[in-house]
Specification:
Elongation Factor Tu (Ef-tu), domain 3, eight-stranded antiparallel β-sheet, Alpha-Beta Plaits, globular, about 25% helix, alpha+beta, about 600 residues, 13 helices, six-stranded mixed β-sheet, Rossmann fold, 5 domains
């Protein structure tokens, strides 16, 4: 028999932090403290289930876990922890997790202090009106400055005094119990009406071959039991709850979930279109009419073409993308064709790191051989007849004569850096067509630089170069600003006199010649030699602005001529020339994956 839980003994909280500030380690220690995981199942970064997350030390997916905790007041509490990613590209995962919580522990590294993503996540949490518990981690490091960092956090948050802030070391377990006590004391119990019709928010999901779509839910009102008939408010799809359970940390079936609890509902649905993250689950009969406030529609910022290397694998690639989309609501894709690469998909990502992760997951989890084109951004094109179209691939740019203007997306960026690196950062930003807005000093040694910069310049290699000019000390955050009209042109690449649409770029007219020259030089090295000369050209419109030849491999047809008349040698060379001409007419040139990625490193030279 299912009995609803006592709401006053439930706490829902998440951990927010910058990359590598000890978030996953703290989650591990909390699981140890509450004996949620048996000793034989213990491992580092327990909530990071993907190999990729472990290798890179970055949480990619939000994951939930339920812990039983006996507090110092002698009461038993159920504490739901929702672990969140820390990289700027996964901010949408964080915002979803925050909607399922009443509180957040803000973890800050005692040697590095508050960084860009830390502040972004704090603002997200404040927007949701969450109770924030600041925690200074890694106090046992030789370079730790816990008192200075606590003072910075007091200046930032204002609500908690530096003296009262928790100082812990998640790695060695110092102060971890204090974190749990602070959660019990400061995070409010969930509010919600147990007697109201069921409303459960879907904050994540994954696909199971046997149970269909498994929705991760936070019950806001009412309760849900196994085998009840349920309905999704936004899509109006009806289904039966095949299984209901909680994460401890593996999926554990229970009889039902009540107001304030976090768990999962196995829906039996087979497609993501029917069960969207951000939707509200209610009862099929007599359920709620009004959905919970959903999430903002995620808008991809970076687009790239992904093609299977073998045409037969097209349907496998589509299935893999659909399954990835199931637990990554921000992933968007549409079919596209390319003259050079045949059938594939135009895929939208939140950033370059997001793109890298999706590529690796396609190759590892779905065993696909794929070829990805260089990333591009979405442009607004105003045509002469006044109509406005959006294009996310240079190949889709209409004829130059029909275009009145092209607008490109500009971003507002904030760079957090020690003062010593202001000069090199300014040089880097201005070289990328960036414009200075202002700078503000956080303390005696650190500064925030505010710029606007075209997204096309930001996605290529800006972050890598920022890390190298600041020896890894700077951190970056960015938001969309506006579309601006710029003097942009399409840079076409012709290989063997054939345009390769996947290598085309949209560039600023002032940069077209230099970028064309560098690209042609790079492609000359990367395209394999054929039995005939392969010309590689860069063109703007009908005008060729750069050219290089990939030399032919030659067979020495004169090797058998020992002396003799010169006309014999000429005859043999002439015969070879005709053969090469015929070969060139029917020969096709394979363009390797490295050539498409050469567009990413054009500015390195």
């Amino acid at each position: 028999m299912f009995t609803p839980m006592n709401q006053s003994h439930i706490r829902n909280f998440c951990i927010i932090a910058h990359v590598d500030h000890g978030k996953s380690t703290l989650a591990d220690r909390l699981l140890d403290l509450t004996s949620t995981v048996a000793d034989r199942d213990k491992k580092e970064q327990l909530l990071d289930s993907m190999d990729l997350e472990r290798e890179r030390g970055v949480t990619i997916k939000a994951s939930a876990v339920r812990m039983h905790y006996k507090a110092d007041d002698g009461e038993d509490y159920i504490i739901n922890l929702i672990d969140t990613p820390g990289h700027v590209d996964f901010t949408y995962e964080v915002s979803r997790a925050l909607q399922a919580c009443e509180g957040a522990t803000l973890v800050v590294d005692a040697s590095q202090g508050a960084e860009a993503q830390t502040l972004t996540n704090v603002y997200l949490a404040l927007e949701q009106d969450l109770e924030i518990i600041p925690v200074v981690n890694k106090i046992d490091l030789p370079s730790a400055r816990p008192d200075d960092i606590a003072q910075d956090l007091e200046d930032l948050l204002g609500a908690v005094s530096a003296n009262d802030m928790l100082r812990i070391s998640a790695k060695s377990g110092i102060g971890v119990r204090d974190v749990m006590e602070a959660v019990v004391e400061h995070v409010p119990p969930p509010s919600g009406d147990t007697d109201a019709p069921l409303r459960a928010l879907i904050f994540d999901s994954h696909y199971d071959p046997y149970k269909g779509v498994v929705a991760y839910v936070r019950v806001m009102d009412g309760s849900v039991k196994k085998r009840e008939s349920l309905r999704l408010i936004a899509t109006n799809v009806k289904f039966e709850a095949i299984e209901i359970g909680v994460f401890s940390p593996n999926m554990s079936p229970i009889d039902g979930l009540s107001t304030g609890e976090v768990g999962y509902i196995a829906t039996g649905l087979k497609t993501i279109q029917e069960c969207r993250v951000g939707d509200t689950i209610t009862l099929a009969n007599g359920g709620a009419q009004e959905a919970l406030p959903g999430y903002k529609q995620i808008k991809p910022m970076v687009f790239a073409g992904i093609y299977p290397t073998e045409n037969d694998a097209y349907s496998d690639l589509r299935d893999a993308l659909e399954k990835l989309q199931l637990n990554d609501a921000s992933l968007q894709f549409t079919p596209e064709t390319s003259q050079a690469l045949n059938f594939g998909f135009r895929v939208g990502f939140l950033g370059l790191f997001h793109m890298e992760i999706i590529q690796e997951r396609l190759e590892r989890e779905y065993d696909l051989d794929i070829l990805a084109t260089a990333p591009s951004v979405e442009y607004e094109v105003v045509k002469r007849d006044g109509s406005v179209i959006h294009i996310d691939s240079p190949a889709r740019l209409p004829d130059e004569n029909t275009i009145a203007e092209i607008r490109e997306p500009w971003m507002k960026i904030q760079i957090y850096t020690p003062q010593d690196y202001i000069g090199p950062i300014m040089e880097l930003a201005i070289g990328k067509r960036g414009e200075v807005l202002n700078q503000e000093f956080i303390d005696a040694s650190r500064v925030i630089l505010h710029y606007t910069i075209p997204l096309a310049e930001l996605i290529i290699d800006f972050y890598d170069r920022l890390k190298s000019v600041t020896q890894g000390y700077a951190s970056l955050d960015y938001q969309f600003d506006e579309y601006r009209t710029e003097d942009l042109v399409k840079l076409d690449v012709l290989v063997n006199n054939e345009p390769v649409d996947a290598l085309a770029l949209i560039v600023h007219r002032d940069d077209a010649y230099h970028k064309g020259q560098r690209l042609v030089s790079k492609l000359k090295e990367l395209i394999p030699r054929q039995m005939f000369v392969v010309p590689v050209q860069a063109a703007v419109g009908k005008k060729i602005i750069s050219r290089a030849n990939v030399k032919a491999m030659r067979k020495d047809v004169l090797a058998k001529c020992y002396g003799g008349d010169v006309t014999r040698k000429k005859k043999l060379l002439e015969k070879q020339k005709k053969g090469k001409k015929r070969m060139k007419m029917i020969g096709s040139v394979e363009v390797p994956q490295e050539a498409f990625m050469a567009l990413l490193s054009l500015d390195d030279d």
